[in-house]
Design a protein that fits this description.
Mean pLDDT: 89
Number of strands: 30
Strand order of the largest sheet: 1-7-4-9-3-2
Shape: elongated
Structural class: mainly beta
Distance between the termini: 50 Å
CATH topology of the largest domain: Endonuclease - Pi-scei, Chain A, domain 1
Number of domains: 3
Strand content: 35-45%
Protein name: Hedgehog/Intein (Hint) domain-containing protein
CATH class of the largest domain: Mainly Beta
Radius of gyration: 25 Å
Length: 405
Amino acid sequence: MTTVCSNVFSSDDLNNMKAHINSLSALHELNSSTKSIVSFTIPLTDSMRTSLQASMQLDLSNVANLPMRWIKGDMEPHIDSSPAAFQNTYLVYLNDSAGEFIVDTQSYSITANTGFIFNEGVSHQTVNTGTTPRLLLGPMGEQGNQVGAAAISYYSNETDAMAQNNLIAAQGGSWVLGDTLNIYYGSIGSYNTWRIALINGGPSAPIGSYSNGFDLTSLGLGGYSFHVYPSAPCFLEGSQILCQVNGADTYLAIETLTKGTYVKTSDHGYQKIEMIRKGIIKNPGNDKRIQNRLYKCSSKNYPSLTQDLYLTGCHSILVQQLKQEERLETINQLGKIYSTDGKYRLMACIDSRAEPWNSEGEYTIWHLALEHPDIRMNYGIYANGLLVETCSINFLKNHSNMASI
């Protein structure tokens, strides 16, 4: 059951909340960034406390600050979550907005100074709200603690995760990645490793990839709403890998390779393929330099290439030296500098010679791992003539989000 509360605050309190410096700063942040939500707090005054007690039966006598947020655009269907237990969600719209607020199956207009109370666990969303920002008090629990959308929202690629579009799954009540018991919308399929694109209302996303079973609250970030996407370094289907066939060096299309095929390495002779996997990448039709997209390496920029090569952004080209800006950006994205067979790993998304391939669509990508006594180590191999990295057995098996062949 949903309770609707009209005229929650006095006109003075309503205007003061809108004009508070924290509210104005948050609105500026929303309008000057790609964020769709900016959370903040304002001090709870005595008159506001009295109004909330009278209109919504909220006892906030021990609360000093109220959670607030500016939102732009529609909210996907979601169930509110919080690290602290709560029984009901409380929120008040502080300005008028186009569109509708839908709780369970009931639709409501979005009207200034109107509050809503509904049970924890009830799905709700907004539709047709346009791009005009709307201001909310809350959403919060009965103790004044902030609650909100899914603990974890899952997307198929980084672009969608940043824009909060095309959700594939949503999880509430748990910050453990891949917690299928708490996924109430969609499915994560066979994905098992994730990167964080965005933390709503929180700090910048940390660097790194995290496997299913990892508790995101262990990062010390509290109960924010995380937007995550899968990632893996790969070759576009059709890439030619230098192998040994009948004792001769021969380029073979990666999709034709099988376990046991000998691949030529840069420093360790010929090594057998231990595993090969494939997946799908959704490539955007723009020029943004992000990891989870395809990049074109052309012979004009890489003289050793026999033909153009297409790599995902987090696939590394092996180089003798890193420029200062490449070194800094590698540390920024990966946390440290990595090497393979005495050469530095330079991810395609960082290498200025690699051009974002803006052919929008879904493409099949492949990767392989060669036999190695240390399952965490990889090799340098030749793809279309360019020296690039393989996956390690451990990464391809446990962290690649790809189907085995």
